[in-house]
Request: fold
Amino acid sequence: MSMINDAFASIQHSLGTEIGVSDWQLIDQAMIDAFGTVTLDRQFIHNDPVRAKAEAPFGGTIAHGFLVLSLASRFAFDTFPKMEGQVMGMNYGFDKVRFLTPVPCNARVRGRFIAKDVVQKSETQLLQTSAMTVEIEGTSKPALVADWLTLAVFD
Reply:
């Protein structure tokens, strides 16, 4: 029980501060196409570069918003420290997700996280809320912002 108490105190102490920033992740047409295939979302603005360039206001294809959001797990692997005694981390959901800027094909994105809240759910579980911003390389306006809830499970 001491390890979860230490982790809780550590997260509480860090509220309002940056947890970290992930590595950059390239979103290329192959990734966009694969996501469209898996999710059955084959809208031309994502999967038809010729038509998207001719008809859409983005200059070419853009990533699905849900594709960008789904990269949160990848960003977390780069960023979230594993706490002593933690045996697992789980996605618990999102609050206040907002898609602010389309991500063009071949752009690189990364996740930036700030500790926002922590609640002890049980003797073995901490629920952490992190403010997540997905940045687009070379652009000042983020692709998306969200509050991400993750559950840390301890032994």
